[in-house]
Amino acid sequence: MKTIIHTADSRGHANHGWLNSYHSFSFANYFDPQKIHFGALRVLNDDTVSAARGFGTHPHRNMEIISIPLEGDLEHKDSMGNTTVIKQGDIQIMSAGTGIQHSEYNRNKDIPVQFLQIWIVPNKENVTPRYDQLSMASLQKENEFYQVLSPNAEDQGIWAHQDTWFSMAEFTQKTDLQYNLKKEGNGVYFFVLEGAVKIADKTLNKRDAMGVSETTLVAITAEKGSKILAIEVPMITLN
To answer: Between 2.60.120.10, 3.40.1700.10, 1.10.150.450, 3.40.50.300, what CATH number should domain 2-234 receive?
Structure first.
């Protein structure tokens, strides 16, 4: 088993006033040659957007872009004609493919919105752009992982153009469990949203992360009140 730990305080940080962003991997003006990506996981930004502020219209190409609101609501508009609101408990995906433009805006006048912005390198380029979102409430289970994204449109959750699986876990009691990798050669990046968990005998706290590869299962001990996002991806090398 191979592991890498990214502590919360080792992340890149940019505070633009209206946007307070922490970068798990190199992004914009933050660059760390040791933290370019974890396999096909290219971006994991922990963003807080001030009330009545947001990202203006901007383009993307050939990337699977996933948003997971943690607090508050975020309005999305795109060049495909979609105007939607993603809320805490939702998950959203855009396959940018041949090209898409979109904006994201906090419509609340008095509270910030906090969300994860995640980019996955696709296994197919120049696909027709698409958009989807889903409430994860119907998928939720206690004290075990539940799948919210996969490569298969017929599976539980939303889907992406990559052999990637996203799973969430929320713990109401101290729990020992295992994460079983779905595909040989994949790795999994565990991001602790709340609480404390022990993975591979290392204790991780809120916003700490661990990437695990070269194994088929990972033993985890989660404390009561913990919440984890697991991102399983092919361990590809990026140029």
So the answer is: 2.60.120.10
